[in-house]
Amino acid sequence: SQKIEQNSEALNIQEGKTATLTCNYTNYSPAYLQWYRQDPGRGPVFLLLIRENEKEKRKERLKVTFDTTLKQSLFHITASQPADSATYLCARRNQAGTALIFGKGTTLSVSS
Amino acid sequence: DGGITQSPKYLFRKEGQNVTLSCEQNLNHDAMYWYRQDPGQGLRLIYYSQIVNDFQKGDIAEGYSVSREKKESFPLTVTSAQKNPTAFYLCASMPGQGNTEAFFGQGTRLTVV
């Protein structure tokens, strides 16, 4: 079965540094991967989508990469701020293409 | 404003009771989903529906039931057969298959008392 894994449960960094979060997938390569942000007690909010033929995608201070050889996506937040503290979730479509499956998430804490 | 609305925000259930969680969307999306979130477990798929009057089981459907009588609505019933129902429940919708993102509601926190 397809799996999606976010190996780090928590990541603590200082303000101004770059946060790098990892998402690994198993089995076949998904057509695309998605990243979401979730604040405590709230629903996830979509951030970025990257297709397998795209090496890199950027949106403001966010950057996502997709490496089909390593079966991995990296999510970077540059010049991190305390307001970036949240849980970040990686997602892919299931094999039938009918639903999204999510990793367990990485909780980022940015200290000032 | 378009969006997806879950109610109630907090729900308390007694042992042996069925409870129904509401999910309504005005985004005109075909597909709707229910996920359960427990600490350290991430989001797990309960049920989903690609079209009105049709739905499929997800990974953890036991003890839950759904209906999809209208495009806008996808209620989830947590039955007494669900032995550990205390969790955060999230409803989502998507336009359909393809390269599209999911839109989530604000969640319902269900607690068994």
Describe the structure.
- The complex is a heterodimer of chains A (112) and B (113).
- Chain A contains no helices and eleven strands.
- By secondary structure, chain A is an all-beta fold.
- In chain A, strands 2, 4, 5, 9, 10 and 11 form a six-stranded mixed β-sheet that branches.
- Chain B is built from no helices and eleven strands.
- The radius of gyration of chain B is 13 Å and the shape is globular.
- In chain B, a hairpin with a 3-residue loop joins strand 4 and strand 5.
- In chain B, the strands form two sheets. In chain B, strands 2, 4, 5, 6, 9, 10 and 11 form a seven-stranded mixed β-sheet that branches. A four-stranded antiparallel β-sheet of chain B has the order 1-3-8-7, with no helix packed on it.
- Helix content of chain B is 0%, strand content 51%.
- Chain B is mostly beta strands.
Count of helix runs of chain B: 0
Main beta sheet of chain A: 6 strands, mixed
- Proportion of helical residues of chain B: under 10%
Average pLDDT, all residues of chain A: 93
Main sheet attributes: strand count, strand direction, barrel closure of chain B: 7 strands, mixed
